[in-house]
């Protein structure tokens, strides 16, 4: 059981949550630290005690986005286990991340800011690209085991993850569509894996 957060930690999280809400509603440039403080229910001084600038607060949001993605890294490939089942597990983990409300909120803020200020999002894009390379690395291990030899690991990784995002990320982030229900999640994951294995297996 997780220990209760200390008051200072709760205030810090309230500030982050308020910043996400305000950045989503108004964008980075139009959001003031005063507004974030009011939404968080804390003083402006408290906000600055935790985050000396709005840029540092935005950097923390990118950091949390990175941590959310890192938490869903696939386990190492195991030559002793069936490939299909392992690939299904890798894609289910990715789907679990894409259906997480907090991750989607973070992604909306980051993507919106990337459109208005690409330079501010360079670190985010670089970090998330590295995280998505975890699937590429996993596929290289599969190939080292003499399987999926027809697939280019980089292209295969993008195809696998892109198929999921087509249904379970971009419609939710850009058009406000609801998350996929469990049956549709399973169908998308299963179809993606079967199509990939039919090509590369």
UniProtKB/TrEMBL annotation:
Domain HTH tetR-type span(s) in chain numbering: 9-69
PROSITE patterns recorded: HTH_TETR_1 (PS01081), HTH_TETR_2 (PS50977)
One Pfam assignment: TetR_N
Superkingdom of this protein's organism: Bacteria
Record keywords: DNA-binding, Repressor, Transcription, Transcription regulation
InterPro entries: DNA-bd_HTH_TetR-type_CS, Homeodomain-like_sf, HTH-type_TetR-like_transc_reg, HTH_TetR, Tet_transcr_reg_TetR-rel_C_sf, TetR_C_Proteobacteria
Molecular function (Gene Ontology), one example: DNA-binding transcription factor activity
SUPFAM superfamilies linked: Homeodomain-like, Tetracyclin repressor-like, C-terminal domain
DNA-binding in keyword set: yes
Protein name in UniProt: TetR/AcrR family transcriptional regulator
Organism: Duganella callida
Native organism taxonomy: Bacteria, Pseudomonadati, Pseudomonadota, Betaproteobacteria, Burkholderiales
């Amino acid at each position: 059981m997780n220990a209760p957060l200390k008051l200072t930690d709760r205030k810090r999280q309230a500030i982050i949550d308020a910043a996400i809400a305000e950045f989503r509603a108004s964008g980075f440039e139009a959001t003031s630290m005063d507004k974030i403080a009011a939404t968080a229910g804390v003083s402006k001084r408290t906000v600055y005690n935790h985050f000396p600038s709005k840029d540092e607060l935005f950097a923390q949001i990118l950091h949390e986005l990175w941590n959310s993605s890192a938490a869903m890294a696939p386990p190492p490939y195991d030559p002793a286990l069936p490939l299909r089942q392992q690939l299904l597990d890798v894609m289910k983990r990715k789907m679990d991340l894409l259906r997480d409300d907090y991750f989607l909120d973070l992604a909306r803020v980051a993507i919106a800011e990337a459109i208005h200020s690409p330079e501010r999002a360079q670190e985010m894009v670089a970090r998330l690209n590295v995280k998505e390379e975890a699937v590429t690395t996993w596929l290289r291990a599969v190939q080292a085991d003499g399987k999926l030899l027809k697939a280019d690991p980089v292209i295969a990784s993008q195809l696998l993850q892109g198929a999921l995002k087509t249904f379970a990320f971009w419609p939710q982030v850009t058009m406000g569509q609801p998350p996929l229900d469990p049956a549709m999640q399973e169908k998308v994951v299963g179809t993606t894996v079967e199509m990939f294995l039919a090509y590369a297996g």
